[in-house]
Amino acid sequence: MTDDAADDPDAESLARSRALSSPLRLRVLRLCRFESRTNKELAALLDVNPGTMLHHVRTLAQTGFLAAEEPRAGTRGAREIPYRATGLSWRTPVPGGSLVLIETFLQQIEGLDPEDIQFSWLGLKLNAAHKAELDQRVYELLREFAERGPDADGDPYSLVVVTHPDLNPSSQRNEDGE
Q1: The whole model's pTM is what?
Q2: Averaged pLDDT, 49-63
Q3: How far apart, in whole angstroms, are the C-alpha atoms of residue 89 and residue 64?
Q4: Has residue 36 got a pLDDT over 90?
Q5: Rounded to 5 degrees, what are φ and ψ at 176?
Q6: Residue 134 in 3-state DSSP?
Q7: Phi/psi of residue 126, nearest 5 degrees
Q8: According to DSSP H, which parts of 127-178 are helical?
Q9: pLDDT in tens, 143-173
Q10: Distance between CA 24 and CA 34 in Å, rounded?
């Protein structure tokens, strides 16, 4: 974080919002969630120019989303710095969140075998209290699994849960009970 951003909570919040406004950066955070990765490794995994990746990694590190770990020697003896996600993104609102997260999701599943994607879709009709209850219970379940930490023998998965208004208006007849 720049000195100005560290002294100004609004500047810090704005810098963090900007950092999370990129699907590529969100994918970097996902890749660094359970395993430390270097700029070079991230560039290769995401098929991005290393210079471009360095900009994104620095942005995430400066805003507190990535933490540098002890440098290590690379394949040719060069000094490489691995980074690990701090978990701060879990507690930070994503600007334009829905669209950025959907684009990130679409990038994540590109090229996957459709058989490997477990998908559920359900239409609901809820009042405001029940909608709030659903949102809270889903959040609590996700938080429970996030705080549990990774299984040592586990495989990496991503989970996306979306609720949205359904553009499926009731007919006048149904509203009147006829």
Answers
A1: 0.75
A2: 96
A3: 9
A4: yes
A5: -85, -5
A6: helix
A7: -125, 145
A8: 128-148, 172-175
A9: 899 888 889 999 988 888 888 787 776 666 5
A10: 17
